Amino acid sequence: MMRAPVLTQKRARSLRRAMTPPEAALWAYLRQRVSGRPNFRRQHPVGPYILDFFCAPAKLAIEIDGRVHETADNPEKDARRTAWLNVQGIEVVRIPATEVLHDAAEAAEGVLQIARLRVGLADPPL
User: Fold this and answer.
1) Average pLDDT over residues 10-14
2) Is residue 125 part of a domain?
3) Per-residue pLDDT at 33
4) In what order do the strands lie in the sheet with 60-65?
5) Distance CA 48, CA 119 (A)
6) Which of 1, 7, 55, 80 has the greatest count of CB atoms below 10 A from its CB?
7) Residue 42's domain spans which residues?
8) Residue 91: which CATH number?
9) Cα 15–79–11 angle (5° rounding)?
């Protein structure tokens, strides 16, 4: 995987300190270290991009999309970014910010299920 430029790494550190409410809500669930569950990183730099959340073993990026992603040329930028990440072998899952704010636990469980499938882990027993 391509190493991120130093400026991108610094920007990622800054973003970790200023998470949006939907990012903070999802991170509250994803940050929990549970045996047999893939781990996630937040505001993780990959190449020229900073991913909202990244699961390295699953090569899975989670992007929380607010209204800004629907305006101006942002849909085209998002498509280019997704295409670049796909070439790197990283799957990108986009979740609307409103869904995370409505039910962060459900959003997190959906993300974890995708990550488990990508790393070949079975779902935990009920």
Assistant:
1) 59
2) no
3) 79
4) 41-46, 49-55, 60-65, 91-96
5) 25
6) 55
7) 6-119
8) 3.40.960.10
9) 15
H or E element in which residue 51 lies: strand 49-55
Other beta carbons within 10 angstroms of residue 30's beta carbon come to: 22
Q: What angle do CA 56, 35, 21 make, to 5 degrees?
A: 60
Domain count, the chain: 1
pTM: 0.80
- 104 falls within a domain: yes
In tens, the pLDDT along 58-102 reads 999 999 988 764 556 678 888 999 999 999 999 999 999 999 999
Which residues have C-beta within 8 Å of that of residue 7, sequence separation ≥ 6?
none
| C-alpha span between 55 and 111 (Å, rounded) | 10
Who wins on pLDDT, 122 or 28? 28
DSSP string, 74-107: HHHHHHHHHHHHHHTT-EEEEEEHHHHHH-HHHH
Contacting residues for 13 by C-beta, under 8 A, at least 6 apart: 43
